[in-house]
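Tip: read the tokens left to right.
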């Protein structure tokens, strides 16, 4: 619950509690707070058990943590990962190649993997047949970005 509290913060909280409540009232306060936390946990556990009883026997292995979407999806993929073909999708997708093809298409260059040998031009003319060199990039405009 308090995983991010360090040693210095804990010492500061203890010193602050001693200053506010005094050394004579502090043990009674700690007992009251711990009893309150126990009661809340017992209430929560009984509410969870009541919900499980009402849902019926088909939900006997139901966990409330499964209602978190990330945990639910992770659990389903762990159980049925091979059946869904996730490994095939993961292995068949080359992100670097896809990004290179998209960058080439945006920059007007032909990609090296599937470029045809010669593309016929529909119109004749010296300016239209000129293609940019593969390392040519459009000029950078700082105002446009």
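Filled-in amino acids:
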């Amino acid at each position: 619950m308090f995983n991010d509290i360090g040693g210095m913060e804990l010492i500061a909280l203890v010193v602050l509690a001693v200053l506010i409540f005094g050394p004579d009232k502090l043990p009674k306060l700690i007992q009251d707070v711990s009893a309150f936390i126990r009661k809340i946990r017992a209430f929560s556990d009984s509410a969870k058990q009541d919900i499980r009883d009402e849902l019926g026997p088909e939900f006997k292995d139901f966990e409330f943590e499964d209602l978190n979407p990330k945990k639910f999806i992770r659990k389903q993929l762990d159980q049925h990962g091979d059946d869904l073909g996730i490994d095939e999708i993961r292995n068949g997708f080359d992100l670097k190649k896809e990004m290179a093809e998209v960058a080439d298409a945006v920059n007007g260059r032909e990609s090296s993997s599937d470029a045809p040998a010669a593309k016929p031009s529909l119109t004749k003319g010296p300016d239209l047949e000129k293609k940019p060199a593969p390392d040519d990039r459009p000029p950078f405009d700082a105002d446009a970005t």
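The two ends are 44 Å apart (CA to CA). Residues 7-55 form the longest helix (49 residues).
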